[in-house]
TrEMBL record:
Protein name: GNAT family N-acetyltransferase
Segments forming domain N-acetyltransferase: 17-189
Lineage: Bacteria, Bacillati, Actinomycetota, Actinomycetes, Mycobacteriales
UniProt keyword annotation of Transferase present: yes
CDD domains: NAT_SF (cd04301)
Keywords of this entry: Acyltransferase, Transferase
Entries under InterPro entries matching the protein: Acyl_CoA_acyltransferase, Bact_Acetyltransf, GNAT_dom
Pfam families for this protein: Acetyltransf_1
Length: 194
């Protein structure tokens, strides 16, 4: 799997970005970026009290657990110097029908539209092609997050269905109302353009 990691140059003011497999030492930085992304893009679906309160602790616990007992999953980070600028986490063979789940794909706010998300999505699809038993891949995106939906469609996904957002950590007080999400799917991992 290491053949798709490396360094890429980004035009403009940004330093080159290195993509590599994540390790336990990355858990806290991933959790902080994850929490920041939720605060920016999940407001209106998640309760303000959760986003403004213990979301960092929640994400830290989740990522520490993921690295303490890694399941059949792959996490790739994108770094610019010492700074984490993005990550993707895919759970291989998560669903017998839909295939592998891209459980998280987040890019630092000032690094959006630099190509890092596309590259990380490509890392996920290549991990699925190399390590999963099936070649399908999917993710859930908030219905209100139209920019992310456009990104996934531009990378070959189709909207397969809608569902209610499950509450983070199983706690319904962390939701605001009954938000919806959409299943974006690739029937073949060769479809993403990353």
């Amino acid at each position: 799997m290491s053949r798709f990691f490396g360094e890429t140059a980004v035009p403009g003011e940004f330093a080159p970005v290195r993509f590599r497999p994540a390790c336990a030492e990355d858990a806290e930085r991933i959790a902080l970026l994850h929490a920041d992304s939720w605060r920016r893009h999940y407001r209106g679906a998640y309760a303000d009290s959760f986003l403004d309160g213990d979301v960092e602790a929640d994400r830290s616990a989740v990522w520490s657990a993921r690295f303490a007992g890694p399941a059949n999953s792959v996490t790739v980070v994108a770094e610019s110097g010492d700074r984490l600028v993005g990550f993707v986490h895919v759970v291989l063979d998560e669903d017998p029908i839909w295939g592998s789940l891209v459980d998280n794909l987040h890019i630092a706010h000032d690094q959006r539209r630099t190509g890092h998300g596309t590259y990380l999505l490509g890392c996920a699809s290549r991990a699925v092609a190399e390590r999963a038993t099936g070649n399908g891949m999917y993710l859930w995106v908030l219905k209100q997050n139209t920019a992310a939906q456009q990104f996934y469609r531009a990378n070959g996904a189709t909207c397969a269905e809608a569902a209610l957002v499950p509450p983070p950590g199983g706690d319904p007080t962390r939701l605001k109302g009954t938000p919806s999400c959409l299943r974006m799917a690739w029937t073949d991992v060769a479809t993403p353009r990353g």
